[in-house]
Amino acid sequence: MQKRRLGNTELEVAPIAFGGNVFGWTIDQEKSFEIIDEFVGSGFNLIDTANNYSYWVKGNDGGESERIIGNWLKKRRIRDKVVIATKVGGRNKQMDNPNTTRKHIMEEVDKSLMRLQTDYIDLYQTHYDDGKTPIEETLSAYQDLIKEGKIRWIGASNISPERLVESLEIAEKYNLPKYQTLQPEYNLYERENYETKFEAITLENGLSVMNYYSLASGFLTGKYRKTNDLSQSQRGKDVQKYLDERGIRILNALDEISFEYKTTAAVVALAWLLNRPSITAPIVSATSLSQMEAIKQAPLLDLNSSALMRLNEASEY
């Protein structure tokens, strides 16, 4: 499988990242191990998580996902074969607002390293920029962690375009670590915010994009078509907003094209993302081996210009 480089780093990754938010939430450790084994065994190597996954589950404290990944790393002993990306600064049970202060970052990185049972994090990402901590403070903290060998590279996720540009400029001006990746929400339905506010920034600055909600919480798999379908999973409540005229138009296009290619809507939706000029590795989750098929098949699907045009037209905003 052809690898793609993350930004201006030496990290090379397969074209889909696994979203570790499901670990310790919708699947337990045993099932998580089975899924990761299948993912890595199929030639993929980028696993994305966060220090607060999945604090929102009753009985969880946050860090469950990192802990499961760490247990897997310890058992499989193939740390050098995978790229581990985690995040800092998001809300948790003790903190209602984002926090990108030096103090918070320095405290949380050691907790993540302990849970992940590793000496270093390949990609450490600002989960939510708090919008008020001086950018130099955040980037200087990352600089010290890189010098200490605790992290290798940095990225950003939920950040305003203005703060992203400012962060890149300050990094350049003061010789501080520069964000190499961006992790925004982006899929066939949710296009406008990323394409109008962020895409030009990523292309101009050589940032790799690892977009989340690649399948719009499962909507783009086609399993949610009417309100009665929303009770099928824990994520159903997040899908209702997509059940409008435009959403149905997108599903119809996915149905048509997946029929032509003898594949599934999920594979086509991911293949569309992989054809976008700024997308490096869409983040996708799976809770069963059958769901892993879309991840495995998407990089192999070569959509022609007609298919891409129809998907672009159906999802126009």
Automatic annotation (TrEMBL):
<dbReference type="Pfam" id="PF00248">
    <property type="entry name" value="Aldo_ket_red"/>
</dbReference>
<keyword id="KW-0560">Oxidoreductase</keyword>
<dbReference type="InterPro" id="IPR036812">
    <property type="entry name" value="NAD(P)_OxRdtase_dom_sf"/>
</dbReference>
<dbReference type="InterPro" id="IPR050523">
    <property type="entry name" value="AKR_Detox_Biosynth"/>
</dbReference>
<dbReference type="GO" id="GO:0005829">
    <property type="term" value="C:cytosol"/>
</dbReference>
<dbReference type="GO" id="GO:0016491">
    <property type="term" value="F:oxidoreductase activity"/>
</dbReference>
<protein>
    <submittedName>
        <fullName>Aldo/keto reductase</fullName>
    </submittedName>
</protein>
<feature type="domain" description="NADP-dependent oxidoreductase">
    <location>
        <begin position="15"/>
        <end position="314"/>
    </location>
</feature>
<dbReference type="InterPro" id="IPR020471">
    <property type="entry name" value="AKR"/>
</dbReference>
<dbReference type="InterPro" id="IPR023210">
    <property type="entry name" value="NADP_OxRdtase_dom"/>
</dbReference>
